[in-house]
Amino acid sequence: MTGPVLHLASASPRRRELIARLGVEPARIVPADIDETPHKTELPRDYAQRMAAEKAAAAASDTACVLAGDTVVAVGRRILPKAEDEATARKCLELLSGRRHRVLSAIALRAPDGTMRQRLSETVVKFKVLSDEEIRSYLASGEWDGKAGGYAIQGAAEGLIQWIQGSHSGVVGLPLFETRALLKAAGFAIA
Ligand SMILES: Cc1cn([C@H]2C[C@H](O)[C@@H](COP(=O)(O)OP(=O)(O)OP(=O)(O)O)O2)c(=O)[nH]c1=O
């Protein structure tokens, strides 16, 4: 008997590396191109869950389960952007300096019959107070590019983070505890 087939609806190399740690190999990588504009007054957790579900739906398959994720950095009800330029990354870092924020990491698994299973991971991250020099040198690294909130915990930013409470893999983009549970519930063979 053959088990279910997995497609990963993501262009993120981090999500590919993280899923590999569960010993599950996606048969296909199918990046989903969706409109990522938050709705007016949409809460960060609702936005993350909607994005993950829309990515999974956009990559729907009649024969495979489709896994998608979405990672959002939030300060209170405010959703921080994915930093695509240095000015945006700087604004994010200035805002995150010395305070705690939340990282919402949503995953969605769409079965071939259209059933959608979802999970949400929430992590609190505390940055040290960042000096101008620390911000300058972090921006020069370019590591922030394409990252929600303008930082990457898996890189040099971890040296600026005092503590986290929650899921490290969730902050990087795919919460492995929740992902394993979803895949197991969908019949994937995971030890
Ligand atoms: C906070 C944080 C985010 N990120 C990344 C994870 C996500 O890739 C990205 C947030 O954008 P996402 O929209 O979640 O994902 P993506 O556009 O990179 O990939 P895809 O939609 O195709 O799956 O920020 C880190 O790598 N490290 C971090 O510390």
UniProtKB/TrEMBL annotation:
<feature type="site" description="Important for substrate specificity">
    <location>
        <position position="14"/>
    </location>
</feature>
<feature type="site" description="Important for substrate specificity">
    <location>
        <position position="71"/>
    </location>
</feature>
<keyword id="KW-0963">Cytoplasm</keyword>
<keyword id="KW-0378">Hydrolase</keyword>
<comment type="function">
    <text>Nucleoside triphosphate pyrophosphatase that hydrolyzes dTTP and UTP. May have a dual role in cell division arrest and in preventing the incorporation of modified nucleotides into cellular nucleic acids.</text>
</comment>
<keyword id="KW-0546">Nucleotide metabolism</keyword>
<comment type="similarity">
    <text>Belongs to the Maf family. YhdE subfamily.</text>
</comment>
<feature type="active site" description="Proton acceptor">
    <location>
        <position position="70"/>
    </location>
</feature>
<dbReference type="Pfam" id="PF02545">
    <property type="entry name" value="Maf"/>
</dbReference>
<feature type="site" description="Important for substrate specificity">
    <location>
        <position position="154"/>
    </location>
</feature>
<dbReference type="GO" id="GO:0009117">
    <property type="term" value="P:nucleotide metabolic process"/>
</dbReference>
<dbReference type="GO" id="GO:0005737">
    <property type="term" value="C:cytoplasm"/>
</dbReference>
<dbReference type="InterPro" id="IPR003697">
    <property type="entry name" value="Maf-like"/>
</dbReference>
<protein>
    <recommendedName>
        <fullName>dTTP/UTP pyrophosphatase</fullName>
        <ecNumber>3.6.1.9</ecNumber>
    </recommendedName>
</protein>
<dbReference type="InterPro" id="IPR029001">
    <property type="entry name" value="ITPase-like_fam"/>
</dbReference>
<dbReference type="GO" id="GO:0047429">
    <property type="term" value="F:nucleoside triphosphate diphosphatase activity"/>
</dbReference>
